[in-house]
Structure formats: C-alpha cells, structure tokens
Amino acid sequence: MSEEPRCLLVVRLRGPSGTSEEIEYSLRLIRLKRSNWATLVRNEPSQLGLLRKVAPYVTWGEPDPKVLAAVLEKRAETWNGVPKEKAYEELGCRDALELATKVCSGEIDLKALWSRFKPYFRLHPPKGGLKRSIKRFYGDKGEAGYRGPAINDLVIRMV
User: Fold this and answer.
1) 37: part of which helix (H) or strand (E)?
2) What's 130's DSSP letter?
3) Quick one: which H or E segment has residue 121?
4) Which helix (H) or strand (E) holds 144?
5) Contact call for residues 149 and 158 (beta carbons, < 8 A)
6) CA-to-CA dists, residue 135 to 47, 103, 105, 130, 140, angstroms
7) pLDDT (tens digit, 9 = 90+) per residue, 61-116?
8) Which domains occur in the chain, in start order?
9) What distance in Å separates the CA atoms of residue 141 and residue 15, rounded to the nearest whole number?
10) Which of 11, 35, 64, 140 is deepest in the core (most CB within 10 A)?
C-alpha cells in the first residue's frame, strides 16, 4: 500500500449561521472564514483532531496532484500581486503540476507554500450543486466529513 499522504485538502461547506464561537474560532485556525473556501493542512494528529471537531461544517480528503495543480493554477492568489510564475520559481518549480506534486509528496512544506501564496483558495459553488445533504456525513448519504480521494471530484466541480 502507498504511504500516508502528507497534506489534506479541506473545503468549508456551511456558513456562519447558527455556528458557535468555538467552532468559528476553530475554522479560523485552519483559515476557512467563509463557505466554499478551501485550504491545505498537514496530515498530523493535531490537525486531524481539529478537523474532527469542525467535521459538520467541512469536508476533507487526500488531493490528487493534478487536481491540486488545477486549483493552484486557477484559484491561488499570491501576496502583493506577484506573478504566479515567479512564485513557482522561488519555490523551485517550473509549473503548477510540479509544485502540486512536491506539496503532495511533502518535499515542499506548507509553510513555504503559504509564504508565496495566500493560505486559502476561494472556490466557486460546485457546478450542479451539492448532491446530498450538507447536514449529514459523507458515509451517511451526506456531504460533510472525511471523504478520502472523492474530494477530488468535488473540487474539480468547484474550480
């Protein structure tokens, strides 16, 4: 079997209405201030505990490098309007696919990535809408919570 992924792609599904202050604070810690925003987090126990806490409001899974490259190319924002190509070069990559591959494999730390790009991706609502209830978990005929590699299908519709 392949080794464990180094990062997880997290997408916020629900807005702030009816959310407790503690949950909103936890969502801000993982840089998801609004619905349909996405971010990358390290795959480690402290982050997984935080994700389990906010699971009814987000969905997450392991990103495919091609999907992550599409997100980086179309929805990533650099600091101070620096061209993306220059940011790729500063990170030692030629293009978005190479950068995405290195981020997924753990060669480039997320801290280095966030020093060049903003730590969130503002995505569109999914084309065709969400297929199930956002109030239920993914394994229980819903959209929220851990979904593994199926996150790629959702994110492609949101890019």
Assistant:
1) strand 37-42
2) -
3) strand 121-122
4) strand 142-146
5) no
6) 22, 31, 32, 11, 10
7) 999 999 999 999 999 999 999 999 999 999 999 999 999 999 999 999 999 999 99
8) 7-63+123-158 (3.30.1390.20), 65-118 (1.10.15)
9) 20
10) 11
